[in-house]
Design goal:
about 400 residues; mainly alpha; about 70% helix
């Protein structure tokens, strides 16, 4: 936990609130970003429950293949929304992020916090004695794997370093466009190399997923860079980010939707060409054509969320945006409930992939309700008096230390 104030969902999206300042000085949120991230987290809960519990025999059937493809859009949408929010927050805090003062240090601390949480989620067992004396080499190799939080933190840190070096928003996003294209085109080549042989394992895991990493920088960082570029272009479309400017953004978002459709359609005829060009080619993991398909669908989703906000508005009590605003907390806790190993077994061990679809969706619903209650409670705590908030944070931190050193049973 943070030592001074709670980490809001902004940090997972770019270390701040996804909105621009209003005349009163209070940041305005862009609800369509929270909607996109919120729906991604909701489907993510179902995805993790499905992957941890569904019986192997059901994974060979068509319903699973359809669900698996839909679930495969969760991580791209999550990363893309993080890039979007980064662009909006950076516009609001540009002067601070170009100066080596407390706001920049706070921003860097939040990125480090996300990185730390990402690694903590892969601790072989949350118990000091086990880590010191029982965890084997393979367990530590698993610990070094790069998941979505590490990918977000390092990608955002890369953008921040570029901003400090280039000293200009415009130059930053020109570089981001180049990074997006470079990562996409280089991914099949990068995946052809076993970097364990040339780099220390913790660094090699960031490059590709040949061993344990599920979300290495190639190609996953390209979704975040693309989201940041789209966020910048959204702001450049005119009118800032206040709700009153939504009508002015409609033409731009229509172009985003058409671009998403074009990318998705063009990805199919380009696939045979890409397969003939690259010596090592895996469509499902590193191919430019599959990246184009997923990015195109994410752009369509993003445009759809914007259209929903524009036409119907978003209630301040929306469960989806609540989950979106508290996505870091929800992401962390729901994974701990499914895979966290504080005693002898975790939930996935007990189930041993024995569920049918009814049980999967029932558990997903229960977990979603719990996460909604957690997000609502935490959102209230964040608005409490500083003494209450900090005191609660210290209690939670002390609880984790006790569990880490004492344990909850063997």
């Amino acid at each position: 936990m943070s030592s001074s104030r709670p980490i809001t969902v902004g940090p997972i999206a770019g270390a701040g609130e996804p909105g621009l300042s209003s005349p009163s000085g209070k940041p305005r949120r862009l609800d369509f970003i929270d909607l996109l991230r919120g729906w991604a987290v909701i489907i993510m809960i179902e995805t993790h429950v499905l992957n941890a519990t569904l019986a192997p025999s059901l994974r060979l059937e068509l319903p699973f293949k359809i669900l698996d493809f839909i679930n495969g859009l969760v991580a791209p949408a999550f990363l893309f929304a993080s890039g979007l929010a980064y662009a909006v927050v950076t516009r609001r805090k540009l002067h601070d992020y170009l100066s080596f003062g407390p706001p920049l240090l706070k921003h860097l601390w939040r990125l480090f916090f996300i990185l730390l949480v990402g690694y903590c989620l892969h601790i072989p067992k949350f118990h000091f004695h086990h880590l010191m004396y029982d965890a084997g080499e393979e367990a530590w190799h698993t610990f070094y794997q790069v998941d979505v939080l590490q990918c977000i933190a390092v990608s955002l840190l890369s953008l921040q370093i570029l901003l400090l070096a280039l000293r200009s928003e415009r130059r930053l996003y020109i570089a981001a466009a180049g990074l997006t294209a470079g990562v996409i085109l280089m991914s099949p080549l990068v995946w052809g190399v076993d970097f364990w042989t040339v780099l220390p394992i913790p660094l090699a895991e960031y490059v590709n997923g040949r061993h344990f990493s599920g979300f290495p920088l190639f190609p996953w960082s390209a979704f975040l860079f693309a989201g940041a570029l789209m966020g910048y272009l959204y702001l450049q479309a005119g009118g800032g980010a206040s709700p009153a400017t939504l009508p002015a953004k409609v033409p731009y978002m229509r172009r985003v939707a058409w671009a998403g459709l074009a990318l998705a359609v063009l990805s199919f005829p380009l696939d045979p060409l890409a397969a003939s060009v690259y010596p090592a080619y895996d469509y499902w993991k590193s191919s430019p054509s599959f990246y184009m398909l997923r990015l195109g669908l994410v752009l369509l989703l993003c445009a759809g969320m914007f259209a929903f906000e524009f036409r119907r508005g978003v209630s301040p009590r929306s469960i989806v945006t609540l989950i979106g605003r508290e996505s870091l907390l929800v992401y962390t806790v729901h994974l701990m409930l499914i895979y966290g190993k504080f005693g002898s077994e975790h939930f996935a061990d007990r189930v041993r992939m024995s569920f049918g679809y009814a049980e999967v969706f029932a558990v997903s619903l229960v977990l979603l309700v719990l996460m909604c209650l957690l997000a609502w409670t935490w959102s209230r705590i964040r608005t409490a008096k500083p003494a209450v908030r900090v005191g609660l944070q210290l209690c939670i931190f002390a609880g984790f230390l006790i569990v880490f050193f004492v344990g909850l049973g063997q």
